[in-house]
Design brief:
- There is one protein chain.
- It is built from one helix and eight strands; from the N terminus they run αββββββββ.
- The protein has a four-stranded mixed β-sheet, with no helix packed on it. Strands 3-8-7-5 form a four-stranded mixed β-sheet, with no helix packed on it.
- The protein is of the alpha/beta class and 116 residues long.
- It has a domain of 80 residues: Cupredoxins -  blue copper proteins (Immunoglobulin-like, Sandwich), CATH 2.60.40.420.
- Its main location: periplasm.
- This is Plastocyanin.
C-alpha cells in the first residue's frame, strides 16, 4: 500500500510540473531590416523570448544591463532567453546599436506591442 501511495505522490508532482510547463509562453521577436519586431513586448514571468534573425546580415542581441548577450546570429539563426521579472529589460543589437527593443515583464502576458 505504501508503494501505491508513493507512486501516487510522484505522479501528482510530475503532473503539477508538466502543467506548469504547458502554461509557459513563447514570444518571437523578428530581426529584419535593422529593426526588432515587435520593438516592445509585454510578457508574464517565465516567458521565453526567441529572437529570429530574418535579415540577410548578421545581428546580435544584448541586454543594456549586461544580463544576457547572444552570439552573432546569421540569417535564420535564433537566440532565446527566459525572463523572470517583473521589470523592464531594454536591449539592442551589439553590432548595430541604433537597433533597440524592450521587454516588459508585468504579468499581462499579451506578447504584443505596448499600450496596456
Amino acid at each position: 500500500m505504501r508503494s501505491f501511495i508513493h507512486a501516487a505522490r510522484v505522479a501528482a508532482v510530475l503532473f503539477c510540473a508538466l502543467a506548469g510547463q504547458a502554461q509557459a509562453e513563447t514570444v518571437e521577436i523578428r530581426i529584419d531590416n535593422f529593426t526588432f519586431s515587435p520593438a516592445e513586448v509585454h510578457v508574464a514571468p517565465g516567458t521565453t523570448i526567441v529572437w529570429i534573425n530574418a535579415d540577410d546580415i548578421p545581428h546580435a542581441v544584448a541586454a543594456n544591463d549586461k544580463s544576457f548577450r547572444s552570439k552573432v546570429l546569421d540569417t535564420e539563426e535564433k537566440y532565446s532567453r527566459t525572463v523572470a521579472g517583473p521589470g523592464t529589460i531594454d536591449y539592442f543589437c551589439s553590432l548595430h546599436p541604433h537597433m533597440t527593443g524592450r521587454i516588459i515583464v508585468d504579468g499581462n502576458g499579451s506578447g504584443g506591442a505596448g499600450g496596456h
